[in-house]
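Task 17 of the worksheet. Students: predict the tertiary structure of the chain below and write it out as structure tokens. Keep your answer in the requested format; marks are given for formatting as well as content.
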Amino acid sequence: MMKNKTIRTTIGLIMLLFLSEGCSKNFLDRMPTDKLDGNTLFANPMGVKVYMANLYGQLPIEDFKFYDRGWSYVEWMAPSVLTMAFLTDEAVHSQWDVMLNNGGNSWWDPGYKLIRDVNLLIDIIPTLGLTESEEKSMLGEGAFIRAFTYYGLAKRYGGVPLIRETQVYDGDVEKLKVPRSTEQETWDFVLSECDLAIANLPDTWLGGERRATKWAAYALKSRAALHAASIAKHWARSPLSGPAVDQGLVGIPAGEANRYYEACIDASAAIMESGKFGLFKPNPTNPQEAAENYRVLFEYPNAAGNEPIFIKGFARTGVDGHNYDVWYNPNQTANGWGYPGRLNPSLEFVDLYESYTNPGHSAPIVTTEDGNVNDYNGYRKDRSYLRFENPYDIFKDKDARLWGTVVLPGTEWKGETIIIQGGYVQPDGEAQIEIDNAITVDGTTYYSYGAPDWTQYSGFNPANIQMTRSGFSYKKMLSSQPITPADRQSITDWMEFRYAEILLNYAEAVAESGFAANNAQLTAEQAINALRRRAGHTVDIPLTIESVIRERRVELAFENKRFWDLIRRREFHTLLNNTPRRALVPLLDLRTSPATYIFVRRTVSRTITRTFNPRHYYVSIPGIGANGLVQNPQY
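Model answer:
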């Protein structure tokens, strides 16, 4: 078995080369704009590293900082506060209701810039006099980058112009216009480029260089094939119409679904059978250990054993650092930063997690003796509520991944007991909810939000936009160390591909297609149960598409996968159909002595309902007046 460090892939180190002093500014300033001077570029090995770093840096990786690279997802949203979780059922923003704008999640001009840049490289490689091994590896990297780029375009726009070689302008702009290929042709091109990358990329790079390997290419193929398969199978859930549909520019025939599912299965199986990858700490002794293992996996991905397949590094604070820690820590651990607590996991998301006593089923939070989890009308004096000595007791027995992902009311985080309280119930049974107030009972003063000063609590006060509105704060991917209260100080790395996703891709493809060769049904069932054992479960569950999707939502939460899962499975328009967000509000009940906690399931305050417009399954193509392309439906 190779050492872990030689298996993992990250682009953080190569980005340092791109940013390093003495090899960037003067060199890049003298590069021609329409072609590569191969002799100049590759006379020094640093030249290829600089150019390759530039390509990697443009990849459409939806990481901590994807808002910096040309995306336009939402209205009324400062880019530094952005995560795709706000667009789904995963989370609520502490201040705004976040929705797709008319431009959707556009990424057109940056995508075609990157295609031009990588085509320049691919076209020049045969003229460079490289050794056979060097040329093969470089062609593999070029194919990987081009596959990733077209994947980023295809999942947004459907069929797009496929530009396979560098275009040269000779004064006739019409020669540069390339029509859209069908969506099926576009996905097939992505998969063929993945195959080219797989055939040419090494298992690892000599000296541990952290660049794309054949395994990263397999992982990309696994993800892309699953996306294409889902569109083919689930198109009828929300069919569109118009010229783009008639010409096959969006949509894939249903008969193609199993071909794509099998491509996903094959690519995933190659990784699973390689012996080079596995789950980080797969056999915890108890749920508490499982929760901490899961949290640490994302805080220190470079120390996460063989689970990471492709990591994007963030190496230098203030330069290429990100803002997850300053924006998303709960208010009490903001360390002086003025706008924390922005990411509030939703009650819908928390309800998704299973209990260990009823495996295989979601376990919504039960707050009343009658067990009704569908009443969101708020507190009622005449209802019989379950009572808890500590606010976190209501979450006991829930899947360990919840504790590793979410800061729950009353739990410890960075040495602080995180106080999330929405009000209190007076001794007469009347409630004070989201009202800054205090009451003295038997000589003790109690406060609506659990403490006298806003710096001492993290929830619900509408006068402070850094307070959770959902009843939960965020933990996954954050540093456990005190934050530096300044811009771009976080350097936690991002796992773009990890082994857990490959297991889930495999399981979904098998469950959806019914594929049974090579013992695939049992292998898929074992895959999801391996993830569950890593989370502290001891009872296996059968393979069903429902169990796979639930596992996917829990395991990959806040990794910017949920948005695209809803897109490819055509579930967004049913999930968000005049749909409000939900919250769990802890109340201190002063009718008992000592006081206890009760919880109210309610609609998030100061919110609007959301409806997904089916046209947003594809993004509007810009510039059609000039480029002559067929526009996507309903734009």
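Marker's comment: The two ends are 53 Å apart (CA to CA). The longest helix spans residues 132-157.
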